[in-house]
Structure formats: structure tokens, C-alpha cells
Design goal:
This protein is mostly beta strands. The chain has 3 helices and 31 strands. The strands form 4 sheets. The protein has a 16-stranded parallel sheet, with helices on one face. The chain is elongated. The relative contact order is 0.08.
Length: 464
């Protein structure tokens, strides 16, 4: 191969090639494009830097080890450098930041470490920056905000500290912002509302505090907003409900207070709504019944009171419903058991009374039902026969006879289904979503939400 000097492109992707990458590739002086997606091992040969005309270097999804060759910084025509899904370690060589023509830098899913260099700000042509799923530490460099051509930014699943840059709003072309799974603190910068092209904001699993900034309603393209598992507080700003393209809204595991307002009914494209483990009060707004695309609704572990809204029976696509650990009263609306796609229902730890409607036996897909600590008057369904014919695993009984086999409450919807649905939307995002955290995840609602996931970078290679 090293003698084929006239070659301009080598594309051996999606085969089963293995072994080391031949160093003789460096002798192909006219090479402009290299694409390898196989099972190559060993180090990336530094001889690739001899291919001075190279503008596209794509050797992702192999088993390369060692460090990124600093010699690659001499490829002045390089526009795309994709090394993700390997086993590369060490730090990013500073020479990489001399590649002024670089538009795509994708180093995610490796074992890279150290801090993200300030020199990153010199890559003014950069449009896609994917550094997620590595071992980076330290603060996000403020120079990042000079990359005004960025449309995709992911640093998720690292150990980054400090705060989000206050002037992140200068990235006005940004469509995807994924920073979940770090150790970030501080507040969400108000300038983020200047990024009016944003489709994805993923900040979950950090230590972010403060309130959700006013002005998010300006983000008319926003489809994915996940800030769960932080330290946010205050009320949900009304203008968030102006983001009518939202399909995923994750507010869970924070310290939000106040009412869940009727404006929630405007989010007609919503498929996942998670607001569990906060301090919301008042009645569950019946306007939620207008969200006819909803697949998962989790409002558990709050302080909601009043009845279960019968309007929830309008959610014909609902598969997971969790209203547990609130102060809901009255009976279960019989209409609720007309939700034919329901597989998980959690109503435990409320003040519900009355009979369990026998229409529950019509939920043929139901695999998990928890009614613990409810003041049920009578038990009217022959669950033994139903469970046998439908392979249903039930956690239903009177308040003194319920719980998991180890004496603990069975797994919550928000720990299983909702965690997976939120993660799924991000794992499509170049793997930038949350990895499973040892939970018993199922696949319900997975396929339906794939189309809502952020754009992947696995594009076709260009033609030379």
C-alpha cells in the first residue's frame, strides 16, 4: 500500500480488519481522506502526518491505544479529526490546536485526561466539539466562548468542575449543549437564552444551583431540556412553557417549589415529563391531559394534593405513570384503566381510598403496579389468574403487606423507565448521554424517543 502514491482516498470502514495500522500509509503523499472503522489495535502511527494534503482523518470505533500523535498538528489542511470510540489516553497535544482549518474535532469515548487547554479557543472554524466520555478534569476554559461557529458542544461524562462560562450566549449558532454527568456548580447562565438555535440542553447530574433563567421561551427550537439531579430551586418560569417543540422535559431530583402551572398543557409534543423528587404543591394540573404524545409521566415524591385528574385518561400513548409519594386523595378514576399501553403504574404512599376498579384487569401490558399504603376498601380483581396469563409481576396489596422481596419498596418508575428514557435521548448524541447507573432499566418508550435524540455525528465520509 505504501507504494500507491497516487491514492487520494482510503475508505475501509465497516469491515472486520484488525491488527496494527500500517505505518506505510504515510508514504501516500497525495492522500486527502482516510476512513477506518474496524478493529485496528496499537498506536496511531505518527507517519500519518506525512500526508500533508490530508483534510479528513476518520479512524473512530477501533481499539487504538496510546496517546494522540502530536505530529498530527502539522496537517494544516485538516478539517475533520475523528478519533472517538477508541482507547486513547494521556492529554490532548497542544499541537492539535494549531489546526486552524479544523471544523470537526471528535475525541469522545476514550480515556483522555488532564484539563481542556485554553488553546482550544484558537480553533475559530470549529463547528463540532465532542469530548464526552473521557476523564477530563478542571474548569471549562473561558476561551471556549470564542468558538462562535460551534453548533455541537458535548463535554458530558467527565469530571469537570467550576461553572458554565457566563458568556456562553456568545455561541449563537449552538444547537446542542451537553454537559451532563460532571461536577459543575454555579448557576445556569442567563446568557444561554441568546442561543436561539438550541435544540438540546443537557445539564443533568451536576451540582448546578440557582433558578432556571427567565427567557428560555425564546428558544423556539428546543426539544430536549434536562436539568435533573442538580440543586436547582424556585418556581418553574412560565415562559418555559412557550417552548412548544419540547419532547423531553426532565426537572427531577432538584428543589423546585410552587405549583406546576396550567401552561404545561401547551407542550403538545412532550413525550417525557419528569418532575419527581421536588417540592411541588397544589393540584396536578388537568391540562396535562392535553399532552397526547406523552409516554412517561413521573410526578412522584412531591407534595401534590387533591384528586388524580381524570383527564390523564386522555394520554393514550402513556406507558409509565408515577404519582407516588404525594398527598393525593379520593378514588382512582376508572377511566385511567383505559390506557391500553400502560405497563407501569405507581400510586403508592398517597391518601387514595375506595375500591380498586376491576377494569385494571384490562391492562394487558401492565407489568408493575404499586398501591402500597393506600386505604383501599375492597380488593375486587383476581390478580392471580391475571398475573399468570399476562406474566405480570405485581407489588399490590394492603398497606401492611407490600414491598419488595428484601423488605424495601420496589423500584420506582423514575429510577427505571424514566432514567432510561432520558438517557436514551442522549446516548444517541454520540454517546454523550448518561450511562446506566446500575439500575434495572427496561426498554419501554425507547424506540419512540429515538427520533427526539440529538443529532449524531456519524455522517457519511465526504467524496474526494
Amino acid at each position: 500500500m505504501g507504494k500507491l502514491a497516487a491514492f487520494k482516498a482510503v475508505d475501509l470502514s465497516k469491515n472486520q480488519l484488525s491488527g496494527a495500522l500500517p505505518r506505510e500509509l504515510g508514504n501516500l503523499s497525495n492522500l486527502e481522506l482516510i476512513v477506518f472503522e474496524n478493529s485496528f489495535v496499537g498506536e496511531i502511527p505518527s507517519e500519518l502526518s506525512w500526508c500533508k494534503k490530508l483534510f479528513y482523518l476518520d479512524i473512530y470505533s477501533n481499539h487504538f491505544t496510546g496517546s494522540i500523535p502530536p505530529e498530527l498538528g502539522s496537517l494544516v489542511h485538516l478539517e475533520t479529526l475523528r478519533l472517538y470510540k477508541n482507547r486513547l489516553n494521556s492529554t490532548i497535544p497542544l499541537s492539535i490546536f494549531q489546526l486552524k482549518s479544523l471544523t470537526h474535532l471528535e475525541l469522545s469515548n476514550n480515556e483522555l485526561s488532564g484539563t481542556i487547554p485554553t488553546e482550544l479557543g484558537s480553533l475559530r472554524s470549529l463547528q463540532m466539539l465532542a469530548l464526552h466520555s473521557n476523564r477530563f478534569t478542571g474548569k471549562i476554559p473561558s476561551s471556549l466562548t470564542s468558538l462562535t461557529n460551534l453548533t455541537y458542544l458535548s463535554m458530558s461524562l467527565n469530571s469537570l468542575t467550576g461553572e458554565l462560562p457566563s458568556n456562553i450566549g456568545s455561541l449563537y449558532n449552538l444547537k446542542n449543549l451537553s454537559m451532563n454527568g460532571n461536577l459543575l456548580e454555579g448557576s445556569i447562565p442567563s446568557s444561554i437564552t441568546n442561543c436561539t438555535n438550541l435544540r438540546v440542553i443537557s445539564l443533568a447530574y451536576n451540582r448546578i444551583t440557582g433558578k432556571i433563567p427567565q427567557g428560555l421561551g425564546q428558544l423556539q427550537n428546543l426539544s430536549f431540556f434536562s436539568v435533573g439531579s442538580n440543586k436547582l430551586f424556585g418556581e418553574i418560569p412560565d415562559d418555559l412553557f412557550n417552548c412548544t417543540t419540547l419532547s423531553t422535559l426532565d426537572l427531577g431530583l432538584n428543589n423546585f417549589t410552587g405549583y406546576l402551572k396550567p401552561g404545561i398543557g401547551k407542550l403538545s409534543n412532550l413525550r417525557l415529563l419528569k418532575a419527581s423528587t421536588n417540592s411541588f404543591v397544589g393540584k396536578i394540573p388537568p391540562e396535562i391531559g392535553q399532552l397526547n404524545q406523552l409516554i412517561v409521566l413521573d410526578l412522584g415524591d412531591n407534595r401534590f394534593s387533591g384528586p388524580v385528574p381524570p383527564q390523564l385518561s386522555n394520554l393514550s400513548h402513556l406507558q409509565g405513570l408515577s404519582l407516588d409519594n404525594n398527598a393525593l386523595e379520593g378514588t382512582i378514576p376508572d377511566k385511567l384503566f383505559k390506557l391500553k399501553e400502560l405497563t407501569e403504574l405507581e400510586l403508592q404512599q398517597n391518601k387514595l381510598i375506595g375500591p380498586i376498579p376491576d377494569s385494571v384487569s384490562k391492562l394487558e401490558l401492565l407489568s408493575y403496579l404499586n398501591l402500597q399504603a393506600a386505604s383501599w376498601v375492597k380488593w375486587v380483581v383476581n390478580f392471580t389468574k391475571w398475573a399468570s396469563s399476562n406474566s405480570v409481576s405485581l407489588n399490590c396489596a394492603h398497606q401492611d403487606d407490600l414491598g419488595g422481596p428484601d423488605g424495601q419498596d420496589a423500584l420506582r418508575v423514575d429510577q427505571a423507565r424514566v432514567a432510561q428514557v432520558v438517557e436514551l435521548g442522549l446516548t444517541e448524541d454520540l454517546g454523550s448521554g448518561l450511562e446506566p447507573h446500575g439500575l434495572k432499566l427496561d426498554t419501554v418508550a425507547g424506540q419512540e424517543l429515538r427520533e427526539d435524540a440529538p443529532e449524531s455525528s456519524e455522517h457519511d465520509s465526504p467524496t474526494v
